[in-house]
Design a protein that fits this description.
Layout (H helix, E strand, L loop, with lengths): L1 H7 L12 H16 L31 H20 L20 H16 L6 H23 L23 H18 L13 H7 L1 H20 L1 E2 L2 E5 L7 E5 L3 E2 L8 H9 L44 H23 L5 H24 L11 H24 L7 H8 L1 H9 L2 H7 L2 E2 L1 E5 H4 L4
Length: 461
């Protein structure tokens, strides 16, 4: 019943156990949604799951209004995800970049991660029992990781297949939800354990005080970035092989020649090598983003038939949410955590302070990102490079500040109500639509033949 309690937060009531596979999925979806979208409580006073102090607040202390811009920003990110997924087939330029470079679709994941960090700072604003808070964070991350395995690990077989099930020997271990779960857990542990609680919240009145209070979290981000760079540019990548199954015959083998260090191309980068060695190549995503590069696809940047002179790595599995690249995803979440600290320590009446302390770091991140890209550390979503981390975090900071001014400062709520609703149900919508769970479910109802389903009638399938 704990998963149901996760759905309704502090207003949870008893419910019957799900007695069907669809009910299990629905509960898991709602649980994942509730994990990172705290609702109904005053989010600036700590989320509904924040361990509260036993002492009641003074009667004359008024609660600060809910920070609506969090939901609106999250909703904009969901809307962007839906747009690039649907329109990307017609406008390949906005879908994920085949390799180096950045497109509209490449902002979606970092935007989610940054706002997760912001929400975590508010959720764990007051922690009276660190052990209990740690246990809750670990359990929540595990639940989200398991949901990710179910919906992205190969259990569902796509829009045009009514079968399900996955060979454990070929399940995809990493994915979008798994990456969010890992980043959530590390950021939550940092917020629970790595902050200087000796200083009173009211004593933090400058950028220096803010850095001093959360210096160990910043140190973790710096250590993770250093480890990532050392592994990306220092690991030796040897030659490697892979096989592709061919119907009616033996698997076809391909050999990729590397023998280099510091290569950031599709074939010989350390990100892919670590995933192949640790996770196993059979557990990686089987439709690599680099199959749309000019070397591989004749329709680049769209997918298409392989070029006649395509290199052997074009069809090799590669996971865009792999292990090493997820290290920098954690850094994005930690940056979001620092944005959340501005909300905590600079109160709602001091809008100018909040805006300034968001915009200045955001523009610095953008400037540093473009400088790194100019000097050869290119923006690359698949590798989650340092320049990509900085440019997406900076862009998210600028956009979030704009949303905050529009919604929470100027009070324009009605134009953003749809985005606010999307934001409150962000992960549920991602799982149902982004992971094709809803279309797969609907296509399960058909007339005589599986092809005669509702989606075909309305022209979607």
């Amino acid at each position: 019943m704990e998963m149901y309690e996760l759905i309704n937060g502090e207003e949870a009531t008893a419910a019957a156990e799900p007695d069907s596979k669809i009910s299990v999925i629905a509960v898991a979806v709602a649980a994942a949604d509730a994990l990172l979208s705290p609702r109904k409580a005053d989010i600036e006073a700590g989320g509904p799951d924040a361990p509260a102090e036993k002492e009641a607040p003074p009667a004359n202390r008024s609660r600060e209004p809910r920070l609506v811009s969090l939901d609106v920003f999250r909703g904009l990110t969901v809307a962007l995800m839906i747009f690039v997924d649907d329109a990307g087939a017609f406008f390949p330029a906005i879908t994920h970049s085949p390799w180096d470079g950045i497109t509209l679709a490449d902002f979606v994941m970092p935007f989610f991660l940054l706002i997760v960090g912001v929400a975590l700072a508010l959720t764990y604003k007051r922690v009276s029992n660190k052990a209990a808070a740690t246990k809750k964070a670990v359990l929540r991350a595990m639940k989200l990781f398991i949901v990710g395995l179910i919906v992205q690990g190969g259990y569902f077989h796509g829009l045009h297949s009514l079968t399900y099930g996955v060979d454990i020997l070929r399940v995809r271990w990493m994915g979008v939800l798994q990456r969010i779960a890992i980043a959530y857990l590390v950021a939550a542990l940092c917020e629970i354990w790595l902050r200087n609680d000796d200083d009173d919240d009211d004593d933090v009145n400058s950028g220096y005080c803010l850095v001093r209070r959360y210096q160990f979290q910043l140190l973790v981000a710096l250590i993770l970035t250093t480890i990532y760079l050392l592994l990306l540019y220092g690991l030796y990548v040897p030659d490697w092989e892979y096989q592709i199954a061919v119907a009616g015959s033996k698997p076809k083998s391909f050999s990729v020649r590397c023998g280099v260090r510091g290569d950031t191309g599709p074939a010989c980068n350390a990100v892919g090598m670590i995933d192949r060695q640790v996770l196993g190549i059979q557990h990686l995503y089987r439709r690599p983003v680099y199959e749309r590069t000019k070397q591989c696809s004749i329709n680049s940047p769209a997918s298409g038939p392989l070029a006649s002179d395509a290199p052997p790595w074009c069809r090799a599995p590669f996971d865009p949410e792999g292990l090493l690249s997820s290290v920098m995803a954690i850094v994005t979440c930690l940056i979001g955590l620092q944005f959340g600290h501005v909300i905590i320590h600079f109160k709602v009446l001091d809008h100018k302070e909040r805006i300034v302390r968001w915009l200045i770091p955001s523009f610095w991140l953008l400037a540093l990102a473009f400088s790194l890209d100019f000097f050869g550390i290119h923006m690359n979503k698949a590798l989650y490079t340092l320049s990509y981390t900085l440019v997406t975090a900076g862009a998210a900071g600028v956009l979030f500040t704009g949303v905050y001014v529009l919604v929470d400062v100027c009070g324009y709520r009605k134009p953003t109500l749809a985005m606010e609703w999307l934001g409150r149900h962000a992960l549920m919508i991602y799982i149902l639509i982004g992971c094709n769970i809803l279309p797969v479910f609907i296509q399960g109802f058909y007339w005589r033949e599986p092809q005669n389903n509702v989606l075909k009638v309305i022209g979607i399938s």
